[in-house]
Amino acid sequence: MTESKKHIPRRGLLFGTVALAVCLLLLAAVAVPAPAATIAYWQFEEGPVDTQTAVYQGDWFLDSSGNGNHMWTWADTTAPTYRSDVPFATVPQTGAANDLSLQFTPNQDNYTFAKPINTYSFGQLTVEASVKVNSLDGYQVFVGKDGKPVASEAFPPMFVKFLDHNDLFEVMMIDASGVPRLTWSDFAPTVGEWYNLALVNDGSTMRFFIKGPGDTQYVEQGSPVAVSGGALIDSDGSWTVGRGMWDNGIADWINGSVDEVRVSDVALAPSEFLGVPEPSTLASACLGLLLLTAVAAWRRRS
Ligand SMILES: [Ca+2]
Ligand SMILES: [Ca+2]
């Protein structure tokens, strides 16, 4: 056996050991069971495409979390339209097909009428939504919660919003101490493009992330905001898609599209957001690499 041939298996062994160690670390990270965190998840897949629902004031916009937080719309004129225009054809985090989104024009909305989520107490809270604006005019709330829980404030409990005056995204939660906490995007969205938004609050800090066109990851916006007493003030108003509230009146209808709205009662990590592949996908790729390494080592020996 020549000197070089003796070294090949050692190099292979070293590489294989390092690969195994990395894979074991990855698997250990993903083997931790995920908490039962999803309180509502509206995917808007009911369809059919290019139609408004004919079901009013009845559960139609389905919550796939299993918690029964389905939404309804008030009347034929308030129903949004299903479109095949989606932020992604497959949800990166779950691998689920995503065929449809909802397109809204002003005065169209859906909401959780008398559903459990309305009174759910959020010590921590993550709100995710994929959104698109068709106009930079008007204040537009993609996802909101109805009410006016603090008498001295015009704010509702929560919103994910587009601001007319500076064309930025704005997110707000009134924390459990009764103080509205706000932060903003670092950029103005482009009309007609999808943005994947995530508002995360662990009960002491609120953070805002966006994955926009061309981004491979979510990018944090602004700076973390300190909150006090818990993520969200308790209230009993509906969760809304397509409009919000201001000073206890319905307001801020959108001219745009919304898809994949998920509400969680934990502060999700950016690796857990809907718009990125879940870590177990990486672990699978790692195992594949390990297998290839083993096969290559076996071939060199034989
Ligand atoms: Ca969808
Ligand atoms: Ca504007």
| Morphology call | globular
End-to-end separation in angstroms reads: 14 Å
The ordered string of helix (H) and strand (E) elements is: HEEEEEEEEEEEEEEEEH
**CATH hierarchy, class of the largest domain:** Mainly Beta
Total helices: the number is 2
Overall mean pLDDT score? 89
What helical percentage do the residues reach?
Answer: 10-25%
How many separate structural domains?
2
Brief summary:
By secondary structure, the protein is an alpha+beta fold. 17% of the residues lie in helices and 28% in strands.
Q: What would you note in describing this structure?
A:
- This protein is an alpha+beta fold.
- It is 17% helix and 28% strand.
- Strands 1, 2, 3, 5, 10, 11, 12 and 16 form an eight-stranded antiparallel sheet that branches. It has a six-stranded antiparallel sheet with strand order 4-13-6-7-8-9, with no helix packed on it. A two-stranded antiparallel sheet has the order 14-15.
- Strand 8 (169-174) and strand 9 form a beta hairpin.
- It is globular.
- The model is unreliable at 1-9 and 30-35 (pLDDT under 50).
- It binds calcium ion (2 copies).
